[in-house]
Amino acid sequence: MAALQKLAGEETRLGIPLLFGLDVLHGHKTIFPIPLAEAGAFDLLLWEQTARAAAIEATRDGGHADSDEGARL
User: Fold this and answer.
1) pLDDT band at 73; cut points 50, 70, 90
2) Which residues contact 61 (CB under 8 A, 6 or more apart)?
């Protein structure tokens, strides 16, 4: 990603930086069940643990933004 960002900034006419996004709803490297399946477990701790694990993995790979409105409820 760093190489693409450098290319966009230095070798394009406008030099507009790129915006990268990662979809980690079901996990990042570790894959978890879809939220509907997790909800069927009625286990708040499970939901927190899988979300935290996905966030940690994504952060380690450079992800650092949250665009999920549901996360703010």
Assistant:
1) very low
2) 22, 28, 29
